[in-house]
Write a structure and sequence with these properties.
Blueprint (H helix, E strand, L loop, with lengths): L11 H4 L3 E5 L8 H10 L7 E5 L5 E2 L2 E4 L11 E4 L3 H13 L4 E4 L9 H17 L2 E3 L5 E4 L4 E4 L13 E5 L3 H7 L8 E6 L8 H10 L5 E6 L5 H13 L4 E5 L4 H10 L7 H10 L2 E4 L2 H13 L8 E5 L2 H13 L9 H10 L10 E2 L3 H4 L2 H11 L6 E6 L5 H16 L4 E5 L6 H8 L8 H20 L16 E3 L2 H10 L7 E4 L2 H11 L4 E5 L13 E5 L2 H18 L8 E5 L6 E10 L3 E8 L3 H5 L2 E5 L4 H9 L4 H4 L10 H17 L4 E11 L6 E3 L3 E5 L7
Parallel strand pairs: 1-2, 1-5, 2-4, 5-6, 6-7, 10-11, 10-12, 12-13, 13-14, 15-16, 15-17, 17-18
Antiparallel strand pairs: 3-4, 8-9, 8-11, 19-29, 20-23, 21-22, 21-23, 24-25, 24-27, 25-26, 27-28, 27-29
Helix pairs in contact: 3-4, 6-7, 10-17, 12-14, 14-15, 15-16, 19-20, 22-24
Length: about 700
């Protein structure tokens, strides 16, 4: 269970069942039923009760076989369905009626095929509701428990893909998940792999939640084509974070091409790439861009627990390679360590005068003459008290030299806690490469990828340090049946009641009322805007006049606005014109937008105001509710924060008031979360420090079916 409304199933008997029934068992070579049976009987070490179902056989592989699930004399923990798509629903009903706990469905031909297939998946969910049996799949390659030596899969690769380890994988598709599994050839051991296919019932979030509790899993990897249930995913991710289990995710379906491919593959909901990335970041999911980065980042997290303050040393036998690695570390925004005096003294006594000892360490070709240097100089580097990671780039396979280096790295890593990060850059591997893998070092393939992995490792440490374990997202993603929009006057009235400063203003229905409003406001100039709940972009239709500086000018502006708006929108219902005091002095315009994402719920977007937000796309995003710390962080993430803090000696602006305004807006939306679809303030004026902020314009859209009062 996680949160008041979200419950997660106990998947223990799915991951390691005591009894399995294989429906569609076969001896036909190469068939799904035959390969699955072989994986269970020959290539697994599982010792539970196995039953077979095939209406055409009385025995298979020397085991008795019954015609249907109904003929089994006792229930099973797991039923594996290796049958044609048209037989799946009836077989599932039989399994549910017989007390089966879980059904793994290999068959394809469901949600990925279109509307008819989605209707079949809806019927699967009805079977779950009626019987309590949970369904894994359909369109799934199965479930592989490497640590438990059990392959509930038809894959011919299972027999060789069996390097256990502390990494757990949750994917929707099979190929990319298997690609990660086979990183075992680099020493990356995977203990558990869920590949849920179309996720008619159980989904990635359930598997993440299970692995957050699993004692044999330390790092969680996920390959996602879409997130179906945003609140459930966020709850699972936060549960993993609270349990100290990092999640590394590769999200496919970011471009139009990728979205189209995922929809035809697993019928996933891809969602907005920007929103997905913002949500991942906030709940502690480390997002990567390809499988290599997935492997490298996960392997780094297995090696240690980052603090966010890591400093890096480079150790190499090639000066050019050491310089390349140092350069990439600097370009990646990472910090090289400054060796302690005792480290420098030790290296100076070991290495020749022409060797570089002051990070990066270049031991030169001296290691060819004195092989003991490989171990002793590396250990001195790794023991430096100012060093938290040691990067060892290896440009070539160099026979005995790299063999000794591989042996030395494995030996030093056993003796020193500081993680050693080898980078094997050559396409040719050898004994040294093998020694690294056997020593648990998991060599990476390029300097740039290694730097990206270390960057993500360190960033995760910073996220952990700032993580508020008590925070939970608002998570109200349901779409509205029908929406309506408040006028600017009504929206600002609500914001004013919520504590957000708004300009002084009067509603004028006639030109004379506009003149009187100008006089009543007693200011140097006013802004005049058409009042409408249907016209959002007032400037586009001539509905805005700025810098109006006299009663006569106010009369004329009122007439001009009404004429231009009527010309653009003949059916516009005249609600009058808003006359507001213009804000004097200097200020910076920012935009704050909160909208209900259909997957994750309300998300706040912050950036430079006016057209700049569309032109420069300099924005940051956070889930609601916002804390003061989150509001400060989202402001600091943008480049416009430099302007707010006083660029090139200018007087700083009131960032404290901006933070307070963001939190008040968040609280206001949270208080009306069932009703508010979108709230945008563009611009929000941020005045010099100590002078506060002011909402100069506001648009609020809401669910018109909700009859609650504001």
């Amino acid at each position: 269970m996680s949160g008041p409304d979200i419950r997660f199933p106990d998947l223990s008997r799915l991951v390691l069942p005591q009894s399995i029934v294989l429906v569609g068992a076969s001896e036909k070579p190469g068939s799904i039923g035959q390969r699955t049976l072989e994986n269970l009987m020959v290539h697994s070490g599982w010792q539970g009760r196995l039953s077979l179902v095939n209406p055409a056989r009385q025995s298979i592989a020397g085991r008795p076989c019954v015609p249907s699930v109904r003929d089994l004399d006792q229930p099973h923990d797991v039923a594996i369905l290796a049958v044609r798509a048209e037989l799946v629903l009836d077989t599932l009903r039989q399994c549910g009626a017989c007390g089966t706990r879980y059904a793994i469905v290999f068959s394809s031909g469901f949600g990925e095929t279109g509307e008819e297939g989605r209707a079949l998946e809806a019927e699967m969910r009805k079977i779950v509701a009626d019987t309590g049996m949970r369904i894994y799949g359909p369109n799934s390659p199965g479930l592989t428990n490497v640590n438990g030596r059990l392959g509930m899969s038809f894959s011919p690769a299972f027999r060789t893909d069996q390097r256990p380890g502390p990494i757990g994988v949750a994917s929707q598709g099979g190929g990319l998940g298997r690609s990660f599994i086979q990183a075992m050839d680099r020493g990356v051991g995977t203990g558990l792999w869920f590949s849920g296919g179309n996720e008619a019932d159980l989904e990635v979030s359930d598997y993440i939640h299970y692995m957050a509790e699993a004692p044999d899993i330390e790092v969680i990897v996920s390959v996602l084509e879409g997130v179906r249930d945003g609140p459930r995913f966020m709850a699972a991710a936060l549960h993993a974070a609270r349990r100290g289990k990092p999640i590394v995710a590769l999200k496919v379906g970011k471009s139009d091409y990728g979205i189209k491919a995922t929809q035809s593959h697993t019928a996933a909901i891809s969602g907005s790439a920007e929103i997905n990335s913002a949500v991942f970041k906030e709940v502690g999911v480390i997002e990567v861009d390809d499988v290599d980065q997935l492997i490298d980042t996960a392997s780094m997290l297995v090696r240690g627990k980052p603090t966010g303050r890591e400093r890096i040393a480079v150790y190499c036998f090639s000066g050019g390679t050491a310089a390349l690695a140092s350069d990439q570390i600097g370009l990646g925004g990472l910090v090289m360590s400054e060796f302690a005096p005792q480290t420098l003294r030790t290296l100076r006594t070991m290495l020749p005068d022409y060797a570089a000892i002051d990070n990066p360490v270049d031991v030169t070709a001296e290691v060819l003459v004195d092989p003991t240097l490989t171990y002793s100089a590396l250990k001195a580097t790794a023991e430096d008290p100012n060093t938290d990671l040691v990067v060892v780039p290896i440009p070539v396979e160099y026979g005995q030299t790299t063999t000794l280096l591989g042996e030395s790295m494995a030996r030093v890593q056993r003796e020193v806690k500081t993680p050693i990060v080898p980078i094997w850059m050559s396409d040719r591997t050898g004994e040294g490469h093998r020694h690294m893998i056997e020593g648990g070092l998991m060599p990476m393939r390029s300097v740039r990828n290694a730097v990206k992995a270390m960057r993500r490792y360190i960033d995760y440490g910073n996220w952990r340090a700032a993580f508020d374990a008590a925070w939970n997202p608002l998570g109200r993603p349901r779409p509205a049946a029908a929406t309506a929009t408040l006028s600017e006057v009504d929206a600002k009235a609500l914001l004013g009641r919520a504590g957000l400063p708004v300009p002084r203003g009067e509603v004028a229905r006639t030109p004379d009322e506009a003149a009187r409003a100008f006089e009543a406001l007693q200011c140097d100039g006013v802004a005049m805007k058409v009042i409408s709940s249907t016209i959002t972009h007032k400037t586009d239709v001539g509905g805005v006049q700025l810098g109006v500086r006299s009663p006569d000018a106010a009369r004329a502006a009122h007439t001009r606005i009404c004429e231009q708006v009527t010309q653009a929108h003949p059916d516009h219902a005249n609600q009058g014109v808003l006359v507001e005091a213009m804000l004097p002095g200097r200020f910076i315009e920012v935009v704050v937008g909160i909208h209900r994402d259909p997957v994750f719920g309300h998300v706040c977007t912050f950036g430079l105001g006016g057209v700049s937000i569309e032109l420069f796309k300099d924005v940051s995003r956070r889930l609601l509710p916002l804390t003061p710390q989150a509001a400060q962080a989202m402001i600091a993430e943008t480049r416009c924060s430099q302007l707010l803090n006083g660029y090139r000696g200018q007087e700083p602006y009131d960032v404290d008031a901006l933070v307070e305004a963001l939190v008040k807006l968040s609280d206001f939306v949270a208080g009306h979360a069932d009703r508010i679809e979108e709230l945008e303030i563009n611009p929000l004026a941020v005045r010099p420090r100590g002078q506060g902020v002011m909402a100069l314009d506001a648009v609020l859209s809401f669910d018109a079916t909700e009859k609650k009062t504001w």
